[in-house]
Write a structure and sequence with these properties.
The protein has about 270 residues and is α+β, with helices and mostly antiparallel strands. The chain has helices at about 20-30, 60-75, 135-140, 165-170, 190-205, and strands at about 10-15, 35-40, 75-85, 95-105, 110-120, 125, 150, 155-160, 175-180, 220-225, 240-245, 250-255. The chain is flat and about 65 Å long. It binds zinc ion (ZN) (2 copies).
Length: about 270
């Protein structure tokens, strides 16, 4: 087995929030890629406490951060992650949170983004009111392993990264708002989601394009039109997976991995209009 093209290469990780320990292990294990954190002002790209507005899509924001890390470090490989939590314009309906990872290989012209949507997030707010207990809220959001942000009645941030009752108690006054701190290093739920996504990125980069040999071969689209098992008309069901290369744009179609070759008449517009 020949060495992967990224064996021993360095990739800039644009981060302020300690994501290294979630992102680096799968990339070094599978590809031999050395992840180097680069301190950039990622908050300039939008903050969880709302002081900077976010523009574009999650994928664009993650790519912009990765480019900033490459510029700051002089490395030609870049990596960055972006989290979005509901309600948020980037999130699909019903989702609680989404993590997005961007990877750039500038010499190859390779740009890859992967996203994972989850319902599982501790994202929440709570306004402190006189005579009520905050204990239920604290339990629900996983405090103190998950940190809090405290805001005053006018929305000013009074404290971030609050992880103990000694700090929280004097701030938990009626009219103040408690919010989950969504920065990755303050939020083990996010760190687990980022770790899982880094594993997917490593698998994706390990696969090389059968045509040009670039890393990142994998699913880029789905072919719909799975035939109905009763009338053989095409349905909206997935018939095949389309793999592609983001560098040379070579594409190949492969059968569904689950071996399904026909749709149930219940999902057919002809048999079950
Ligand atoms: Zn049918
Ligand atoms: Zn290719």
């Amino acid at each position: 087995m020949p060495e992967h093209p990224y064996e021993g290469r360095r990739v800039a990780l644009a981060t302020q929030h300690g994501k290294l320990r979630a992102l680096a292990p799968p990339l070094v294990r599978r590809l031999g890629l050395i992840v180097e954190p680069v301190a950039i002002d990622t908050d300039a790209f939008g903050t969880f406490t709302g002081t900077t507005a976010r523009t574009g899509t999650a994928a664009e924001a993650a790519l912009a951060k990765a480019r900033a890390g490459m510029a700051a470090s002089g490395l030609d490989l870049g990596l960055a992650s972006e989290g979005s939590f509901g309600p948020h314009p980037w999130l699909p309906f019903g989702a609680g949170g989404m993590e997005t990872l961007a990877f750039i290989d500038a010499p190859r012209g390779l740009e890859l983004t992967l996203s994972a949507v989850s319902r599982r997030t501790n994202f929440a707010q709570h306004e402190v009111s006189a005579g009520t207990d905050i204990a239920a809220f604290l339990t629900r959001v996983g405090f103190p392993s998950h940190a809090l942000v405290v805001r005053g009645p006018d929305g000013d941030v009074l404290a971030t990264g609050v992880q103990d009752m000694a700090t929280l108690s004097p701030l938990a006054w009626p009219g103040n708002r408690l919010e989950t701190d969504m920065r990755a290093h303050m939020n083990p739920t996010r760190m687990a989601a980022i770790r899982a996504l880094a594993g997917r990125l490593a698998v994706r980069l390990a696969a090389l394009c059968p045509d040009c040999g670039a890393p990142g071969w994998g699913q880029v689209d789905l072919l719909r039109g799975l035939p109905c098992s009763s009338c053989n008309q095409p349905t909206q069901g997935v018939m095949a997976i389309i793999d592609g290369c983001t560098v040379c744009h070579h594409r190949e179609t492969r059968p569904r991995p689950d071996g399904v070759t026909a749709a149930s008449p219940a999902s057919c517009d002809w048999c079950n209009p």
